[in-house]
Amino acid sequence: MPIKLGANAYGKNAVNLSRIIRHGSHHEFRQVSVSVQLTGDFDAAHTLGDNSLILPTDTQKNTVYALAKEHFTGTIEAYGLVLARHFVSRNPQVRKVRIELVEHLWQRMEFDGQAHPHSFTGGGSEKRRAVVALTAECTATVWAGIKGLMLLKTTDSAFVGYPKDEYTVLPETTDRILATKCEAEWEYTSADLDFESLYQKVRTSLLRTFSEHKSLSVQHTLYAIGKKILEETEEIKEISLVMPNKHHIPFNLEPFGQANTNEVFVATDAPFGYITGTVVRG
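Structure for Uricase, as requested:
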């Protein structure tokens, strides 16, 4: 039976880029991790050791930094498209480029209602994400998303009516804490959109639906979030969500002569429920 090379790709991961954008009265600080993946005519490098078509990953890294001064002044989606077009236009051996960008979010400090011109706070778990794919035929696909978004509400969440067997000890509840570390990814219908306003619109819709939804399960809320975003935003084809259940378990106060009326909890890291789903049109 003959042996041949299957699917393959290569690139540079985790190119950590920081950028100061200086405005007249204040600075922006942007911090992003960029990963580049190239797919194309690279068989000879694998089978013959011929590197004549291999753009060095160090060159890919340098390109991320070199293009940042002029082009990383807006959204990460827009910068991803700049990088993808650069690699495709200069390397005919490349059939497809995939650029992933994860942005660490920084906000200007505020004092007495005034934003400080050049001091920032950050370090939270929430990150903004984008993926750009571009083919040699210049067909572009753009995804955007959120990672590490901590969400919690203290009521309007229940879990009842589930199957029970000899191993079930979980009590039904009509009032519990619902907490998750949410990830969301959505695909845009075009690569020529106002990515900033759409991102903020989707994030706001996600937060509002989570807070207002009368949840009967994490699955119930996940679908409600995705459905609402698609209803409100025609520029999105589909949205996928990951919503692990960050459990807060009522602590037994009876040994201490107290009733726990849903006020004292044990926060547990593991094990945890892991719920995913994709909401699509039609």
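The mean pLDDT is 97.
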